[in-house]
Amino acid sequence: MTSPGQPPQGAAFLVAQVGAHAAGRFAERVEALGLTPPEVGLLRMIAGEPGRSQQSVAADMGVVPSRVVAILDTLDHKGLVERRPGVSDRRHHALHLTDDGRQVLMEMRQLARAHDEDLCAALDPDERAQLAGLLQRIADQQGLTPGVHPGYRQLSAKRRR
User: Is the whole model's pTM more than 0.85, yes or no?
Assistant: First the structure.
């Protein structure tokens, strides 16, 4: 606990402070690729499981399907994803990256590595591994969906305004 007039020093505050900073910097970096963080997250999810449905992506992201459709429409317009008729149910679309989508994802991975290096520059490799392990334990204990940024809901809502 801090005394009046002192900045907060608890771990939860620092995680939130660094997290907000990291998310903002990441958004700036992916903007250079013409993307938003929700678009990057969706590309990554599709790459990890090609052919998955819009509904499964929405469920994993914790958003209503119409938000996923809006992001997919943008990615489709940019030529990065394609919707194919589903194998088991042709009414549902199977999502796949295009060649351009795979290329952008490779560029995004390089950008993400640089982002991680920049953000963690004050730590040596052992400290980075320790920090990642501790944060993973917290994420697991809090029941967060692995690999899904909870801020996608807010970022995609802001973009639509």
Answer: no
On whether the CB atoms of residues 104 and 33 are closer than 8 A, the answer is: yes
Which residues, in sequence order, are bridge partners of residue 82?
96
Which residues in 9-73 belong to E strands, given as ranges? none
- For the chain, the straight-line distance linking the first and the last C-alpha, in angstroms and rounded, comes to 38
User: In this predicted structure, what is the pLDDT of residue 161?
Assistant: 42
Residue type, 26: F
Cα 141 vs. chain centroid, distance in angstroms? 20
Q: What share of the chain is helix, strand, coil (3-state, %, to 5)?
A: 65, 5, 30
Residue ranges of the chain whose pLDDT lies below 70: 1-4, 89-91, 151-161
Neighbour-count burial of 61, counting CB atoms closer than 10 A to its CB (0-12 exposed, 13-18 middle, 19+ buried): buried
39 CB-near residues (< 8 Å, 6+ apart): 30, 71, 74, 75
